[in-house]
Amino acid sequence: MRFGWQTRLSRSREIEGVFQSGRRVNGGFFLMIHTFREDGSGYSGPRLCVIASKRVAHDAVVRNCLRRRMRDLFRREYAQLPDRLDLILIARRAMITVPFEELHRRFQKACTGIQLPQSCPSDFTGNSCADTPVDTNNPDRPPVGAAKTDLL
Hints:
This protein is of the alpha+beta class. The protein has 4 helices and 4 strands. It has a 4-stranded mixed β-sheet, with helices on both faces.
């Protein structure tokens, strides 16, 4: 499978949306953040954004190698990933030295934690599931719908 423009998550607005409302899965050698997009967004298959920062590897050759490895993980599991999935993979320093088979095993394990979105019809105000933020069960994050005064 070719990693074309349709399978890339490249618009900053969309990437920021995944960071804001996505679920985080610690893969040990990478961090996976995922969410589901609305039906009417054109391409229906899963999309990927890979991040390998200078903090992980100062050498551009190493960063590019990390990006290639993450894209290859995505390619190998593409058929098993649910439709409308937006996925961000962030490399960690340990990813540089780990064998690819171990990375693939960890990615498969992380993908089993992807939960399909609950189907909920639009309510009378026109709000749909996509308008509701995802609760990430993070104790440091306030509950969904909590006002600032409720937290004090």
